[in-house]
Amino acid sequence: HRIDVFAAFYNHSEINAYMESLVQLYPKRVQLKTFGWSYEQRALKILTISNGDGRRNKPVIFIDATIHAREWIAPSFALYIIQQLLEQAENADLLLNYDWVIMPVVNADGYEFTHSDSRFWRKTRKPTPIEEHIGTDINRNFGYKWGDDAGSSGDPAEEIYRGEQPFDQPETQVLRDALLHYKDRLAFYLSLHSYGNYLLLPWGHTSSFPDNYFYMMEIADAGAMAIIQSTNGIYSYGSGYHLMYPTSGDSNDFAVALANATVAITMELPAGGFLGFDPWVTHIEGIVTESWVGVRAMALEVISRGYQ
Ligand code: 0X9
Ligand code: ZN
User: For the Peptidase M14 domain, which residue ranges apply (predicted)?
Assistant: First the structure.
C-alpha cells in the first residue's frame, strides 16, 4: 500500500509497514534492515535506495529524521524523499553514482508517545536516575565532545539532558552504528529536524569551523538559494553554534568528526501549527515540496563536485 504523505501524519508502525511494502514493490532497488531496537523494543529500520544497477559500495547520502519526537514534519519529509527517489524518473540523476540511506524514525519510542500521550515530547522514553524524569536528548548523547555544559545538560529534568554516559540510549547506538557502517563512503549526512528554516553546519560544540567548512557552505548555499528562489521566503545557513546555539554531543558533529562525513547538515524545516512543531495536515504538502527543492539542489551540488 502506498502512503499519501500529504494526507496525514503516520505513526511508527505505519511507517515501518510502508517500508516493508516498498521491499516487495522494488525488490531490486530497496533494502530494509533492522539496525537495532529502541528502549521499548521497537524495530529501528533503515532503508537503502539504489537504482538497481548492481554496482556495490557507491558513496552514500544518509538522511535521518525524528531524533526529536515532536518534530512531525521531519518523518513526513523523509517519506516524501523516499517517494521522490523511487517514483519520479526525473530524480534518476540522484541515484546514478550514489546510494541513499534513509532512517525516517530514530526516536521511535518518543515518536509513539507524541501520538498516544503527549504531543510535544522531545526526548527518548528510557528512565533516568531520577524517577520522575524520563528521557534523554539523543542529539546530546553522541560520544564526540559529549558532556560540555555549554551545549547540553546533566540534569534529567532538562529537555537537553545528555544522558549519564555517551551512547547510553539504544537509539543513539543504532544511529552511531549505521553512520559508522558507511564511514568510508559518507558523502553527505543530512539530519531532518524542525523548526527554523536553517541549514546548520558543524561545529555545534565550538565556535571554530571544521577544515572543509567552506565546501559545506557551498553545498548549503545551493540548497538555501533553491528554496529561496521557489518560495520567496528565507533560509539561513552557517554553523549551528553561531546560527542557533551551542550543542555538544549532537549527531551532526559526530558524523563529521568520527564517521568521516564530507558534508553534514542539520536541516531545521519550516515551523507550523501552534508551537512550530505541529503544522496542520494541510501544510504538509507545501513544506515537503519546498524542502525537496532544497535537498535535491544540495544533493546535485554534492554529486557534481564528485565525492571527496
Ligand atoms: O537542539 C537541537 O538538537 C537542534 N535544534 S532542535 O530545535 N531541532 O532541537 C539543533 C542541532 C544543532 N546542531 C548544531 N548546532 N550543530
Ligand atoms: Zn530537533
Answer: 8-302
Is residue 183 within 8 A of residue 57, CB to CB? The reply is: no
Check residue 29 and give its pLDDT: 98
Strand order from edge to edge, sheet including 236-239? 30-37, 43-49, 99-103, 60-65, 186-194, 263-269, 198-201, 236-239
ipTM confidence = 0.97
Cα gap 273→116, rounded to integer Å: 19
Query: Pocket around ligand 1: residues whose beta carbon is below 6 Å from it?
Result: 68, 71, 139, 193, 200, 202, 204, 240-241, 244, 247, 250, 252, 266, 268
Q: What is the mean pLDDT of residues 184-209?
A: 98
Mean pLDDT over the full length of the chain? 98
Q: Are 158 and 128 in contact (CB under 8 A)?
A: no
The Cα–Cα gap between 187 and 164 comes to: 32
Catalytic residue chosen out of the listed positions 71, 171, 268, 301:
268
Ligand 2: centre distance to CA 68 (Å): 5
